[in-house]
Here is the input.
Amino acid sequence: MTQDQDYYEILEVSREATPEEIKKAYRRKARTMHPDVATEPDAAERFKEVAQAYETLSDPQKRQMYDMGARPGMGGMGGMGGFSGAGGQTFDFSDLFGSMFGGGNGGGGRGPRPRVRRGQDALVRTELRLVEAAFGVTKPVKIDTAVLCPRCNGQGGEGDSEPETCRTCRGHGEVTSVQRSFIGDIRTTQACPACDGYGTIIPEKCTECSGAGRIRSTRTINVKIPGGVTTGNRIHLESQGEVGHGGGPAGDLYVELVVAPHEVFKREGDDLEVVAKLPMTAAALGTEVPVATLDSEREDCDPEDATVMVTVPPGTQSGTRIVVDGYGVPKLRGSGRGKLGVTLLVQTPTKLDDGQKEALRMLAEMRDENHPEMAVQKHHRGVFGRLKDAFTN
Here is the structure.
């Protein structure tokens, strides 16, 4: 809200309006402009303006200061507290105690605290499948938050019951007690116990929310998640969090994402890794093999993208990794996709008939491999690491 905006114009009342007229104007505005009711994009911001205008004009002291030219952020709206010394001099220690221990009205300044306040932000977690995280999804998410009370529409009163000035603190929201000491009278100020520091009391509280203007409820919202997200990413949804006290504007909602492990694919950044088993003969002679892609799990997958042909050179050894561009995870920021790494696991046949055994013996004789010698070599850590992953996954 800019400082040149007039509170009286926001509430559509005259400068001579009575407290009762100001209350009715605020209630009429709040019923139509609350973010849970209004559909305009700027409903939350406009409701904040109405709540701030009402907070100032409904308090006699703040209204007087406002009429004299004071504005939010300029200070000067509040009472005074301290102690009187033996010489009659008054010292103000309220600001010191407030900065050390916090004000009794929860706002840092003196005077009644607003009954209408912004709600807190909320955080929920939701699990995604790898294909959902990679290509995006609209996910229904169940959340348990405070929502606007449907019975009183956030006003807190039953029927036409509206807040009345507290008789204990006379609308100041705080009470002062004086205690005598050897240095004089010590004055302490605290939140009014009768009205909890609001300065007003609701005579007949709403039976649904007990005057809070909000109730807890479980609801489901559809969250649009972009492609390329990973565990720990958060989706920010404005004004979808907790509705504030007194039916105040809702806080924001943060949806934290957790991507579940996949049975076949392993994600490393924007790249995907997969292990493909290959017969010994195919590895020796060379071949082309189709490898399933993550795209195949999409409902709208083009059949041509369901698999990718991988060329296996003759003499390929177990642990060889072949990289295919463009079949990884779409990049969250920017264009393009990561790579698909295919690690080949060469399989040795375990069940052979007599003819197959004889053919292998003949091959061994031709290659002079009837009595091979074991040659111990230094292993390559990456190859053995991939093979280990292949057997453990």
